[in-house]
Amino acid sequence: MTNANNVELTSVILVGGGRMGQLIAQKLDADGGFAAEGIYDVTNADELDGRAPVVDLVIDFSNKDALPHVLAYVERTGAALVSGTTGFSDEGLSELRALGEKTRVIHSANYSLGIAALKRAAAQAALALGEWDCEIVETHHNQKADAPSGTAILLLDAVDPDHACEVAYGREGFVGARPAKQIGMHSLRGGTEAGTHEVHFFGADEEVCLTHRATSRQIFVNGAVAAAKRLLEREENGFYTFEQLMFE
Length: 248
Known about the structure:
Layout: E1 10-15, H1 19-31, E2 34-40, E3 57-60, H2 67-77, E4 80-83, H3 90-99, E5 104-107, H4 113-129, E6 133-140, H5 150-159, E7 166-169, E8 182-189, E9 196-203, E10 206-213, H6 218-233, E11 238-240, H7 242-247
Parallel strand pairs: 1-2, 1-3, 3-4, 4-5, 5-11, 6-8, 7-8
Antiparallel strand pairs: 6-9, 9-10
Helix pairs in contact: 1-6, 2-3, 4-5
């Protein structure tokens, strides 16, 4: 497909009609290199099973319940997939990874370059600070459905990649002294907060706190579209991380 200036356009299907989906649609339109062929949501995702047009790229920021339809569509058409939906089960994530054998796939719970840098910094701090206590705190708007956030889970994986620590999802009652090899995970909800993530490391008489604050969802939109462009440049099928596409 080409535009009026005979420039080749990337055809796109958007899955997710919420705020993120609307912002991504606006970003794609402003970019000028994409042609949106349809917007779907969890309510009509079954239309992907046979009635949707064949496109180059699918961008999915919808609901985990739409995943079976998205997977089936991408497997049938070979479209590249940018997935930003959170709340998947381990089985759902495994299916996404397996799809990388047949096409180009990226899944990330957060498409912010700042968060990607925070993950790297947190991983390095966890190695350097050894036995220090670690707590993760995430804050989001009062309409967010899942807790902890997908980004907080990414940060947990960064500081404890071998899953050697117990995770305490908040604390209540007479819990006693904090045990070693425990990471606290805390979720705050309120107002219109776009997203704040903090990784705290507590040592004897000192603390290190790594923080990222999002002031609008536009940072995730910009990152998702940038990742889509990098993904389309890849010649080999595979399941890619955001960090691989943006930093390597």
